[in-house]
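Input/output pair, single chain:
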Amino acid sequence: MDNLRTLEQCQHATRPIVAFASEHPNGEDIAAHSHVRAQLIHTLTGVMTVSCAEGSWIVPTGQAVWMPPEMDHAIRIAGDVSMRTLFVRSDARPALPSACEVIAVSAFLREALVEATAIPLDYATGGRDERVMELILDEIEAAPRLHTHVPLPRDTRLMRLCQSMIADPSAPVTLEALAARVHVSGRTLARMFHRELGMSFGAWLRRMRLLLSLPRLAAGVSVLEVALEHGYDSPSAFTAMFRRELGVSPNRYFKARGKSDG
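Output:
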């Protein structure tokens, strides 16, 4: 990989598609910013929370967020994040998304993104490097769009609580205990969740844990281990939640995805 490449160089590269690798420690906040190119933001490790005017997305490994050009966005890092970013000029391909989207990243797309960071910024046209970049765009267009969006609040107190739960999804939490941390009553905090997020505290917590569990399950980790990692006392309780949210058990969900990927 060209260790000397910078974000500025990526923005002004002559080629329409370039890639960038960066490392970010747990707890880092990347302030709101924008780029002249669209981005596909992916992490090999850890979890990112990407926030912009269109909403906020929790993006664990196994997923990526597409960010249109010139859109202000901030990124919160949970766990050490190895970020891989694809920068795409607006004229690279007309069918690419025009709004923020979260996509599933297959093993193939993941490896292609890693490979792209080793391709020179001024790669030759018509050769293998350009074909790799075009193939990545093919994969982005074909990737499943994910609708397990977890809303995040604008209220700073509630945001701090949500971020703490994202950083440690196995920690036992109650509405009353969280309310005490921000010096409000449980009833007031419940109203804040409904007002800011459009759902109850319990519904938000279930959806957040579900989203964070998907890449672990996809990696072959047992349902028991994933259940314990995400605050459930037993695999049966986790499976029941999973079935309520997605309509199938974890095993059936990934078996169906495996068939569609093949």
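The chain is about 40% helix and 20% strand. The beta strands are 17-24, 29-33, 38-43, 47-52, 55-60, 63-67, 73-78, 81-88, 101-104.
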